[in-house]
Amino acid sequence: MPSEHETVGAYALGILDDAEATAFEAHLAGCEWCAQQLDELAGMEPMLAALADLPGSGSSPAIGDSLSAKPSPRLVEKLVDEVAEKRAQKRRRSFYMIAAAAALIIAGPLAAVAVNSGSGGGGQVTASAAQTTFESMPDRKSATDPASQTSATIAMQQKDWGTQAVLELKNAKGPLKCSLVLVAKNGQRVTMSSWSVPNWGYGIPDGKTPESRKPLYIGGAAAFKPNEIDHFEVVTFEGKKLVQVNA
Length: 247
Prior knowledge:
Layout: H1 8-13, H2 18-28, H3 32-40, H4 45-52, H5 73-107, H6 129-136, E1 139-144, E2 151-159, E3 162-170, E4 176-184, E5 189-197, H7 210-213, E6 216-222, E7 229-236, E8 241-246
Antiparallel strand pairs: 1-2, 2-3, 3-6, 4-5, 4-7, 7-8
Helix pairs in contact: 4-5
């Protein structure tokens, strides 16, 4: 992390977050050097901001000579580099926050489709929110694949916006990464959800742990109404179909 002396340029441009600005102001109260640098930078915000956005900013020895204020060229180049880095950090923070918010919006209540509690091979197994939703849906279709022996039951409920579904998956041996794919009557394919199957698997009748014997319950949603759906597929990321459930 840079010291407080190295954040004077970013403070002058107002690109520090609240916590960083507060920390710098506390430092500034007792630092004559930073106060002097801040005075020299007064009125230079537009120039530094523009330079920070230029490709290769900080690389030209003539940058300092082009400014009306006259701090040393080395100081100006350092400040320009600092400003560019701070701006990049802010862009990265904004991107991560937007991505996280988008994920929550997309997942919505079905983010709780989560699996059974616990991440290891032991521990108490409790009913997930997805299992509770599954048990409340009377419209269910089931199938077992003769080759993989994987069993799946799809519970569905029509919504104004399409179909909410919850998958109950049994005899799925890991490790695998899988998706629940809806195939509409018009041929369109929609991935409703995806998940990982751990080494111990899900719904294994002779599993050695409570988690391995318990089925996986995971939810999904699609814009198609139930009468527009032909079937569902559980497929691996490599494209292998584990089981198909006709709607």
